[in-house]
Amino acid sequence: MWEEFGVWSSSIPIERFYNAGLSTDGRLCIATDIDSLFAVWSIDQHQQIWSHEEDDEVIDAALADWGNSTHFAFTIEPVKSRYRLFGLEHNYPLEINAQHDSQIQIWSQTREVAVQNIQDKTQLQRLKYRDFSGDWVFATFSDDGSTLAVLTPYDISFFRYHQSE
């Protein structure tokens, strides 16, 4: 079963999300705004742990890879990871989760993500995500299949998979 695990709401330095990246292990999320300000959110700690202003000299080297592939890599701590990109400009979501035989389908009118069985498309679960604007929505699984992230202009909702008993 998927359960809501938290929400990152836009604020300073990012007032409106534009692109995001979910770490391969589903523990960190990077986000940008239209002006390419960066911030990183710890999904486990429910807090921002790094932002572009805090390390300007490091970001220039990292920006060279942004948008050239499906992933973006940070090599500095505490945000060292490889991030799957999704969003308005760089959208490479992982929509099929082989670990749990499921795939996602976004239902923007009801502000839900449907998790469906890969084989027969039966609906396994519907997850409500936060969206105050209704402008657009993107979603991805983490590469390891543990986390589902839903990106909207003002919120990123996170869901974690737990074995049902």
Description:
With about 160 residues, the chain is mostly beta strands. The protein contains one helix and 14 strands, in the order E-E-E-E-E-H-E-E-E-E-E-E-E-E-E. The strands form three sheets. The chain has a six-stranded antiparallel β-sheet with strand order 5-4-3-2-7-6, with no helix packed on it. A four-stranded antiparallel β-sheet has the order 1-14-13-12, with no helix packed on it. A hairpin with a 4-residue loop joins strand 4 (about 40) and strand 5. The longest helix has 8 residues, at about 55-65. The termini are close together.
What tags apply to this protein structure?
single chain; 165 residues; mainly beta; six-stranded antiparallel β-sheet; four-stranded antiparallel β-sheet; 1 helix; 14 strands; 5% helix; 45% strand; globular
Major sheet characteristics: 6 strands, antiparallel
Tally of contiguous helical segments: 1
Task: Encode the helix/strand succession as letters.
Answer: EEEEEHEEEEEEEEE
Uncertain ranges: none
Overall pLDDT, averaged?
Answer: 89
Beta fraction? over 45%
Shape: globular
Say what oligomer this is: single chain
State the end-to-end CA separation.
10 Å
Main-sheet strand order equals 5-4-3-2-7-6
SS content category: mainly beta
List how many beta strands DSSP finds: 14
Helix content: under 10%
The gyration radius over C-alpha positions equals 15 Å
